Amino acid sequence: MRKSILLLITAFGIFSSAFSQSANSGLSFVGVGDMMFGTHFPTVQYLPPNNNPWPLVREVAPVFAGADVVFGNLEGAFLDEGKVFKSCRDTTKCYAFKTPTSYAPVLKKAGFDFVSIANNHIRDFGPPGLISTRRLLDSLDIAFAGLVDKPSVIKEIDGQLVGLCAFAPNTGTAKIGDIEGAVKIVKELDATCDYVIVSFHGGAEGRDHMHVTRETEMFYGENRGNVYAFAHAVIDAGADVVFGHGPHVPRSIEIYKNRFIAYSLGNFCTYSRFNLSGPNRLAPVVQVWTNRDGAFVRGKIHAFHQIKGKGTLRDHGNAVVYKMRDLTRMDFPELNHRLVIDDDGDFYMPFEEAMRSRGLSIPGYDIKVPEQLPFPVSGNK
Fold first, then answer.
1. What domains are defined for the chain?
2. Cβ distance 79 to 324 under 8 Å?
3. How is residue 174 annotated by DSSP?
4. How much is the pTM?
5. Rounded CA separation 380/376 (Å)
6. Which H or E run includes 227?
7. Which tens digit of pLDDT belongs to each residue from 154-204?
8. pLDDT for 63-78, tens place per residue?
9. Phi and psi (nearest 5°) for 162?
């Protein structure tokens, strides 16, 4: 018995060293959901206090600073002058987003590296809004993707090539419903890049649609895609991290073939014209650490929520952690014995699973170590 315990302690030391090295050798990715920092359509009353968006995201910036790559979904256009392009019977009730161009630098200040513009609001103000937004993002060196003419983008970060492709069910975007086309785009990125992020804007919206159904989701007569089939297909094609958004509420997470999927990151920073009641207020900031191959090592749900009129603030009650943990347990019961999400939002594969994934097996305390370990056993400090 004593020998078995010593073997277990030794193996745990080996695992801890390998876990630490794996976490340090890859990149860490942060993903957040929908962003719209205020709109001056139909009236300037929907802009933040003092016409300053920075206080809305100030509390999140330190978390972003701790990641190598930061991603979010940009809802709406940056535009100062222009007429609404979408059809609106009553402009006072029309959900069309036109954010002042002076707000765009807050994305850079906060730390964003990539944004998706594949969503239903990027064309609210037609070609002028889209052109203005693209020019601003280019000027800020924020990589973007998700359009028919730009489904993907590649950026060098810390000497590594990181590719992003983004998809949605909306006009002018790379289509989430075209899984075969998405697979082709991902394979092209995977052949070039060290890491591949896939973003999708899909799934039905609201508190009644928080579960991943594994079926095609319809909402307001629109096909919002089968997000489960889509996420699995792009990982099969070479994606390393999948960040979903669109339902305006958090959804479950999944580890599939040692790759991470977030099925919805909810509303991250949506100052006005958005429902922020109940689960719609929850703003998970999800961080994922990978190894050099892009495989999942560990993750954390940083708990934030939106307070109307104040922005995205720390939620010390960790409501979004509990919500996403419950959803994950219900939607993916097959993961219950493999994916741990603790009360602080840290999530990981348990000791046994992590050992097994590294070529170690632990039937009882009978530790078996392969001849060639993927990490040194001795000589480590």
1. 29-350 (3.60.21.10)
2. no
3. P
4. 0.87
5. 7
6. helix 227-236
7. 999 999 999 999 999 999 999 999 999 999 999 999 999 999 999 999 999
8. 999 999 999 999 999 9
9. -115, 125
